[in-house]
Amino acid sequence: MILQWIRFLLGGGLLLAGLATFIIEMIGAFRFRYILNKMHAAAIGDTLGIGFALLGLIVMSGFNFTSLKLFLVIVFLWFSSPVSSHLIARLEVFTNEDEEAHYQVKNLDTSEARSQDGTDREL
């Protein structure tokens, strides 16, 4: 009886950790302005949040064949999600026609950075 409660509380805690990770991911995806920053928040939250949530389900269901399948889903997502996010980010970098709005040219002689629109900013 006490083992079931411990398993329930541990699984519930992992599910709540996954939910919190998804909420932080969602805030990051809506708050950031540049698409690569949004993708970074989504990719980190996706991988970690799904891992926590599925691990919580594994703990709650006990160790059986369903747990093995859930563990294999975690392994698949941990390998495929970062790779797909990286490929999409590379596509964005190579096809971005308005890169001047996002990057700065650093002059190594002074401590000033000059953006492409000509404004000087002290770093």
Task: Describe the 3D structure.
With 123 residues, the protein is mostly helical. The protein is built from three helices and three strands. Strands 1-2-3 form a three-stranded antiparallel β-sheet, with no helix packed on it. A hairpin with a 5-residue loop joins strand 1 and strand 2. The model has no long low-confidence stretch (mean pLDDT 82).
Describe what is shown at a glance:
This protein has 123 residues and is mainly alpha-helical.
Shape: elongated
End-to-end distance: 60 Å
> Uncertain runs with pLDDT below 50, 5 residues or more?
none
Q: Provide the gyration radius in Å.
A: 21 Å
- What is the count of helical runs? 3
Tell me the structural class: mainly alpha
Strand content: 5-15%
The biggest sheet, with number of strands, parallel, antiparallel or mixed sense and barrel status, is: 3 strands, antiparallel
What is the N-to-C succession of helices and strands?
A: HHHEEE
Strand order of the largest sheet: 1-2-3
Q: Would you count the extended β strands for me?
A: 3
What are the main properties of this structure?
123 residues; mainly alpha; 3 helices; 3 strands; 8% strand
Secondary structure layout:
Blueprint: H1 2-31, H2 35-61, H3 65-95, E1 104-106, E2 112-115, E3 120-122
Antiparallel strand pairs: 1-2, 2-3
